[in-house]
Amino acid sequence: DLNLPGESGISFLRELRRHPATASLPVVVVSAIAKSGQQQLGSVAVSVLDWLEKPIDEQRLLKAVSHAVKNGPRKGRRVLHVEDDPDIARIVATMLEGVADIDLATSLSVARERLSNSDYSLVILDIGLPDGSGLDLLPQIHAMDPPIPILVFSAQDLDDDIRGQVAAAFVKSRTDETSLVRAVSACLEESTIKKTEDRNKT
Question: What's the predicted TM-score (pTM) here?
Fold first, then answer.
């Protein structure tokens, strides 16, 4: 929205485009002043996927968000999916096609090895695994520098204390594709920004 409390949405969008980590971040503008904002932004407006005036056309918004998620930048975005159910693994891989590159680990031991040898932007974690609980991976993931965001996608719900240790948590039977893809995309953007900030500090 271009009408932000205490800040101009136009200034915020210009700042996004100046920051290396968010220069190519997909943006959809939904605002009562979308048309005038488009004129004010000039050349920056070209980088916005869509401009929607309020009241919102829900179908157009969903189409724009779906396009942003599927066609956003994926360079360096690698996700470790810890899941022993091949059907769930295939479904998630299909959902995230074009969003990130997916590595599958079907057990704790494989996940530990991949975490030690590869650089990931996100871990999607099942709890019930053949050789233990996926939650046993939390200490290893949190100890990494920088820590990798964790999205739990499991048949089991989480206790509040565990929920506070992860970026997001979803129960498989209660989660639709749009919610999962949006959560994954948000985690990946956050991870990308943190990695860029860390590189700039060194």
Answer: 0.64
